[in-house]
Amino acid sequence: MSQPTQPNSPSIPRSIPWIISVDDHVIEPPHLWERWLPAKWREQGPRVVRDSYTIEWIQGNQIPRKGGDGPETDWWVYEDFAWCHQMLNACAGYREDQWWMGPIAFDQMREGCYDPKARVADMDMNHVEASLCFPTYPRFCGQLFAERSDKELALACVQAYNDWTVEEWAGDSDGRLVPLQIVPLWDPWLAADEIRRNAERGVHGVAFSELPGKLGLPTIHDPSGHWEPFFGACNDTGTAIFMHIGSGSHWLTSSPDAPPAVTANLVFLTSAMALSDWLFSGVLARYPSLRVCFAEGQIGWIPYVAERADVLWSKSVWAGDGPSLPEPPSHYLRQVYGCFYDDHAGLALRESIGVDQIVFETDYPHQDSTWPNTLDTVATFADALSDTELEKILRGNAATLLRL
Amino acid sequence: MSQPTQPNSPSIPRSIPWIISVDDHVIEPPHLWERWLPAKWREQGPRVVRDSYTIEWIQGNQIPRKGGDGPETDWWVYEDFAWCHQMLNACAGYREDQWWMGPIAFDQMREGCYDPKARVADMDMNHVEASLCFPTYPRFCGQLFAERSDKELALACVQAYNDWTVEEWAGDSDGRLVPLQIVPLWDPWLAADEIRRNAERGVHGVAFSELPGKLGLPTIHDPSGHWEPFFGACNDTGTAIFMHIGSGSHWLTSSPDAPPAVTANLVFLTSAMALSDWLFSGVLARYPSLRVCFAEGQIGWIPYVAERADVLWSKSVWAGDGPSLPEPPSHYLRQVYGCFYDDHAGLALRESIGVDQIVFETDYPHQDSTWPNTLDTVATFADALSDTELEKILRGNAATLLRL
Fold first, then answer.
1. How do beta strands B81-83 and B72-78 pair?
2. pLDDT tens track for A248-297
């Protein structure tokens, strides 16, 4: 992986290491499944059509529906499911006062959303050396395919996604675009096979659900050991598990009439649930090489959760029927990575989280993204960190996690 | 209020200020409503009867049912509702290895649970000067009475509770037991009347719900201004609003099969929801004398939530139809108090929370309580604080909040 040569912005007072971002997003190009599915499936797999949309309001949310007399946009269609991209998830290049709520078509998006060469150019201008991208249309851990009825086709779609992400997206990017695979969530043995197939070609990350129970799947506490083949394959191949906020298709808020800012303020709650699950589950104790990363949940709340977990662990009344942990829960933070984009509270507590456990993200091309001014954000915290800490947090820890 | 004379424990290296705890619990004595309701209601109000119980298992939880061929315990009965105390909520004086899951009768409890003189003696031995107690049988904000059908009787029960807590519980305790009122949650005008009635006799705290929407009541965002009479009365009389975890009768967990420790680890989530609600609601901006306190939610997560709230406030897309806040959300932390019992992460970030906004609790007689060894907990953090900070956090801030 050769580092680009763009100098640091003149506003940055010292040389800032080039960033490895472990939470960005790819907008899958319209040709993905038509090009990468085996020929016999190409007619039935996901494809993009142009059609109008109308907005339905459901509990305060705008839901676009295909058809009607509204304007046109691009629709992904597959089985009986039609879906279009939301502008706020592909708004790179637009100023905040140009944002809108509602669909966005490919020709309205910045090319870096879906084109690997354009993406690398956008990374160059933002001091980002490498980027791990979550899927968009398949959702954060590929739950789209777990929800479809034809599971043979769905497996082929998962594999086509992974082939595309390795061959075409990461492709000839010289390591700048790091592949993140999805797996057939509905079958942990098939998932394990996919982990091994991709490990052989150098893929070391898999997207998984922070709350699989909310997807109708067994939880990581499942007493029958449902996920053991998957966890074992990840452990054995050095494949890290990445869980994005919302990857349980479950958003928590205080009430339906709360302002949108309240809901946005609370997106870390499902990450806090997931971290509690993992710390008490015994999975990290059983698989000591397994590493997990919580994406976009930020980190300022982790020390509180871990400290409290240790106190509860010390009281036998809370053990229940769960596995007995040989060490206090916070011991297993060494297998957990927390990903932030802007979180001074978290950095102030970096010793409690573990300086080796913190990774960074730019969240391109979502509305939360700091692109193209991520260095301005870095400048707000760089002076509080030593050179070694800054190098670890901006790139070194991510390189370890992803085996770059 | 005269301070008791018990010296500090010899294990405490410097003189520790006597504690004012803003989150303890009273177990209402069996005679409460029979003595304090007007004569015409005494037959119909809550009373205690002795009866057997049987345990039903519902989604992994043990629910005691009145009757059957099990052992006897004490039952509160009122209208069609029968309820008994849980041992883990009245376990003061029992060692952890003596705890049990299930009902506890009055004659199995330590007298300090329900008797004010015995309570003060238990406070003496724990270096606690004053204590604010939440209700138990009426639940954390008196929602029991909001759920009953005869609202005239329910209002009389609320008033009887408040008369008892002022006259008999706080009674002749010389200020050691600080009254916390409940209000008729179903009618904000009656609630305002009750706030004013009790303010005239020196009551400066009211128990309220962290998530009233989860109780089927309007939220604090209600566009018709449902709670304005109540908020106005609290603001005008200097009555602080106390919201205990669980006061929305709503507990969040990751999944039904998660170990009990996961659920216990996540009890702060509803406090985080409530803090987000209050910071964005505009209520604190409209009522600048209003002060709110989150009880038992601890504090280590507050800096993250407040920091993130400020970022969201700065982005117009998140404002929605909510009130526009003249200042960033964290500005209003000066009207918010966070209550902790054991939280080093929170104390490390005390400057972000505000050293004047942190209060302390002993949680007597719950299983989480640090009684009778609260000074051992204090010893784990006292050295990290200045004398001024320690005085504020252990007693000074609570005295300000409660106008003692």
1. antiparallel
2. 988 889 998 999 899 999 999 999 999 999 999 999 999 999 999 999 99
Written as six digits, the tokens of B120 are 């003060």
Sort residue A196 into left (φ over 0), alpha (ψ -120 to 50) or beta. Answer: alpha
The confidence score (pLDDT) of residue B2 equals 43
Residue B246: both structure tokens together: 């669980």
- The nearest CA of chain A is from the CA of B44 a distance in Å of 35
Of B266, B307, B318, the CB nearest to A345: B307
pLDDT at A321: 58
Residue B323 carries which DSSP code? Answer: P
- Positions of chain B with pLDDT lower than 50, given as ranges: 1-7
Cα separations in angstroms, B316 against A252, A341, B311, B326:
21, 19, 10, 13
Kindly determine whether residue B276 and residue A265, on different chains, have CB atoms separated by under 8 Å: yes
**How are beta strands B240-244 and B292-295 bridged, if at all?**
parallel
Whole-angstrom distance between the N-terminal and C-terminal Cα of chain B?
9
Helices (H), A129-259: 143-146, 151-164, 188-199, 228-237
pLDDT at A3: 47
Instruction: For residue B249, give the H/E element and its range.
Output: none
CB contact under 8 A, A345 and B352: yes
| Residue A221 in tokens | 């506490």
Tally C-beta pairs within 8 A across A and B: 211
DSSP structure string for A255-307: -TTS-HHHHHHTTHHHHHHHHHHHHHHSHHHH-TT--EEEESS-STTHHHHHH
Which residues in chain B have Cβ-Cβ distances shorter than 8 Å to A227?
A: none
- Higher pLDDT residue, A320 or A197? A197
B182 token code pair? 């409940």
Nearest CB partner across the interface for B265, out of A219, A308, A316: A308
Q: How far is A365 from chain B (nearest CA, A)?
A: 16
Select from A222, A254, A349 the Cβ nearest to the Cβ of B211: A254
Residue of B nearest to A213 (CA): B255
Task: Name every residue whose Cβ is closer than 8 Å to that of residue A105 and which is 6 or more positions away in sequence.
Answer: A50, A72, A73, A74, A85
Distance from CA of A173 to the nearest CA of B (A): 34
Model ipTM value:
0.94
Question: Nearest CA to B182 among B152, B160, B210?
Answer: B160
Question: Which chain A residues touch B211 with a CB distance below 8 Å?
Answer: 254-255
| Interface residue of A308, A344, A380 to substitute, partner B, most B CBs within 10 Å | A308
Q: B261 vs A322: CB contact, 8 Å cut-off?
A: yes
Q: What percent of chain A has pLDDT over 90?
A: 86
Q: What's CA A144's distance to the chain center, in Å? A: 15
Cβ distance of B266 and A252 shorter than 8 Å: no
Q: Rounded to whole angstroms, how far apart are CA atoms B100 and A116?
A: 60
